[in-house]
Predict the 3D structure of the following.
Amino acid sequence: MSKITEASRDHIADENFAFPKERKEPIHDAAHVRNAIARFKQVQGVTEAERDEAWKRIKSAAKKHKVELNEKGECPLDRRN
């Protein structure tokens, strides 16, 4: 995965972050989508509603960039499973 410089991070559109309000977890390419999935549990300072919306964005980005999720595409934190 290529490292994002602060300058290039500033040019990433808000919709290309799993958590756009906080600009956390960029999901603009396949490598960053995989990273966002791996680090999803580590994100702090967000509400459960924000986390749910972030997972929807991650799933959409995964589909767009052809990144496979687990068999059911379940959120790593989903307690309902």
About this structure: The helical segments are 6-10, 30-39, 48-64. Residues 48-64 form the longest helix (17 residues). The first strand starts at residue 17 and ends at 19.
